Amino acid sequence: MFRAILPEGEFDCESYEQTDQGVELYTGDGELIAFVPYANLVAILNEEVESADDRSVF
User: Fold this and answer.
1) How much is the pTM?
2) With 60 as the cut, is the pLDDT of residue 26 above it?
3) The total number of structural domains that make up the chain
4) Residue 36: which H helix or E strand, with range?
């Protein structure tokens, strides 16, 4: 599971594909959820990766 972070919100998706103009976000069934231009994308996080330490970042 991935989370695409945008300035105005976020999307959860099962997979994504990078294109020349941005990223395409997909469900587990391969359905397109959204296209996000790189200019509007803050980050894509892999929700299955756990941090090795528990410290907070401010």
Assistant:
1) 0.78
2) yes
3) 1
4) strand 32-37
Domain boundaries, position 10: 2-46
| pLDDT at res. 58 | 44
Q: What spatial distance separates the first Cα and last Cα of the chain, rounded to whole Å?
A: 25
Query: Which residues, at least 6 apart from 34, have a Cβ–Cβ distance to it below 8 Å?
Result: 4, 11, 24, 25
Enclosing H/E stretch for 43: strand 43-46
Cβ atoms of 14 and 27 closer than 8 Å: yes
Confirm whether 58 is domain-assigned.
Answer: no
Domain membership flag for residue 54? no
